Structure prediction request, 88 residues.
Amino acid sequence: MTPVVPLRVIQIMRAACDRHGVTLGELLGPSRGRSACRCRRDAMARVRSEVVINGRPASYPLIGRWFNRDHSAVMYMLGACPRTRIAA
Prediction:
């Protein structure tokens, strides 16, 4: 089932696409190109900071559904997951 995406989120997505020169299809699709990933990260960060639901920021699972991603991908993109470093 396709999630209902609020108008404000769609506006943020379109603004990010215009700024980065990426189509909405690339933003929401499986593309892992540099420009699409940067656009996606910027849009997710704006959604997380600007969209408030019941007095709280939008949750990672909800943002993931809006962007066709898993919640862990959202957490990684927004830096919520610590990156582990392998000692050589």
In short: Strands lie at 52-53, 56-57. The first helix runs from residue 7 to 20. DSSP finds five helices and two strands in the chain. The mean pLDDT is 90.
